Amino acid sequence: MSRRLGRRGWRIFASAIILLSFVTGALAGPARVASINMCTDQLLLALADPEQIAGLGPYARDPRLSWSATEALRYPRLSGEAEDLLMLQPDLVLAGRYGKRATRDLLRAKAVPVAEFDVPRSIDDVKSQIRRAGDLVGHRERAEALIATIDEALSRTRAAASRRHDRVLTVSRRGWIAGGDSLTSSLLAAAGLSNAASDLGLPHGGFAALETIVASKPDLILIAEADPAAEDQGKALLLHPAIQRAYPPNKRLVIAEQLTMCGGPMLPAALDRLTAALDRIGH
Amino acid sequence: MRCGTTSQGRSCPRNCKRIKPSNMPLANRLGRRTRRLSASQETGRRHRSNSFGDGPAEGIVLKISLAAPGAAATLVVARAADRAVLPLLIGGVVLLFLVSLGVGAVRLPIGSVVAALFGFGGEIQQTIVQDIRLPRALLAMAIGAIHGLSGAALQGLLRNPLASPSLFGAPQAAAFGAVLVIATGLADVLSFALPFAAILMAFASVFVLIAVAGRNSSLLLLILAGLALSSLAGAATALALNLSANPFAALEISFWLLGSLEDRSFHHLALALPFIVCGGWLLLARRDAFRALSLGEETAQSLGVNVAGLRLQVIIGVALGVGAAVAVSGTIGFIGLMAPHLMRPLVGHDPGRLLWPSALAGAALLLAADIAVRIIPSSTGIKVGVLTALIGVPFFLYLIMRERRRLGGGLA
């Protein structure tokens, strides 16, 4: 009795699977999509069906870099090199436009389709990238929903925006300064702040000497951690007395790196974080 | 010169060579020194059953009589030069120190630099001069000095003009020690664990080197063993950083292998300076022993120098100084090779007299190199170790050529 029921159940299950794969094959985008860039990894995770994701890049699981690190654990980890992609033979590979040029060329030569994504330089860039990724994986509706969440967060930030128009310098390890022409700048502008990087002559970002940073005298600094630990020489710069003294906690905006590195599903959280940070230092 | 006695057999040719006209003042000074030493040792030695026989003492007496006649005139000239060398060097170091305070990414007029140094002027200027440039200049001075001093001490200990900490892999090993502590997450880069680990590794490397090559080994053996050790330590440093979870390993590797004084703070100075001072003191304290040692190990021993103890003290001194320096600046090479050589023509070949001038010359060299990396226009900061290697390696090659000629060897 139970055996017969079991067999019948199995048949229903099997036909459901066949039907489902038929439907996704016909309506949705490519069946298997891989990504080798940390930012496209996260777009893929946010927009594609779990069974569509064939593999993610090496940094997708790093919680310090990736907003979707825990989700990424469920999918195969790729090396980011051509070899395992050629073995995997996905229907589409998402990649960044910078770096790994040789890998992308090799994949194209072997007839693996590659979609390249630029580094987003503004919130609008992020929205159009989300739309494009949604179309590529065949889930326009998810893309639109995500964009709507971003717009809501954006209006919250604009409502709470600072009226003092403070100049903010984004300082990362080793004195790397996020340029004026960057997503961070766009986020700051939404909160009524301006990026001081242009005053340093770094419109596209770059390394600045500690002296230059101190001399440019920004009103606030934006850093990734409230209490950076000097775990290497690059990070020890953030603990230099010259910075510590001039920028006590009430002159620091703290937004984790994983929120500002890429544009995508983390953007609403990044905007909310910025609003909260402004609130905390009393703007 | 009698070279017949058994214990003198090996070192004798070297001693004979040392007494040539250009080295007369040294021989004379040594003669005076040793005469005093041997007089004080006389009673002690008489009671001790000594295995050296009368060979060494005879050698010294002979040397004095050889050195005495022609030396008087040269000695006067050398004395005058000697007296001028230290003040000149100190003046040079002070000058470079001030220039170092005046140079940086932000252009400040010299007047405002001086004002800011003494707590006047704008807040920003004070921060730049006091918090950023002052610790950097002080570190360059201390680290340069300890490298120069270590080089002079090692050259004195091994009686080998090509000895230097960086050719022996000590800084590279120290960097590996420091990186190991960071990569395993035991401590961060601003903790005292870092200089401790660096000092331990530096000690181990010099110890292993002298154990492997043997203490009376030829120049070639020491340098080959040193090359092997420094390559190994450099590779291990890079590997440790690659294996750590740090995604910015490449930049960190370049810091540890090439060295930099960029954006150091007083915190770094506090980490390194106590050890550098201790190491420097250990090395400077044995000036007389180096002098006696330059007559040969057996002779020094007969003069009451505990050669094994001296060797250990020098290794500890070098490890303390170089290890602590590397823990805050990364590997900066070749200062320890160049400084003693630049000073030798000025102060003569007495290894005891060479120590202070070498330290000052090392300080001046590193200050100058660190000024140069800030002046040379570049998109990203040039590492100071790059500059010292660019100058140091051709210098080293020149030294090898000179040594080859001096030893009468050729490629053919």
UniProtKB/TrEMBL annotation, chain A:
SUPFAM superfamilies: Helical backbone' metal receptor
Residues annotated as domain Fe/B12 periplasmic-binding: 32-283
InterPro entries, per database record: ABC_Transporter_SBP (IPR050902), ABC_transptr_periplasmic_BD (IPR002491)
Superkingdom classification of source: Bacteria
Xref: PANTHER family: MOLYBDATE-BINDING PROTEIN MOLA (PTHR30535:SF34), VITAMIN B12-BINDING PROTEIN (PTHR30535)
Name of the protein: Iron complex transport system substrate-binding protein
Organism: Rhodopseudomonas rhenobacensis
The organism's taxonomic lineage, starting at the top: Bacteria, Pseudomonadati, Pseudomonadota, Alphaproteobacteria, Hyphomicrobiales
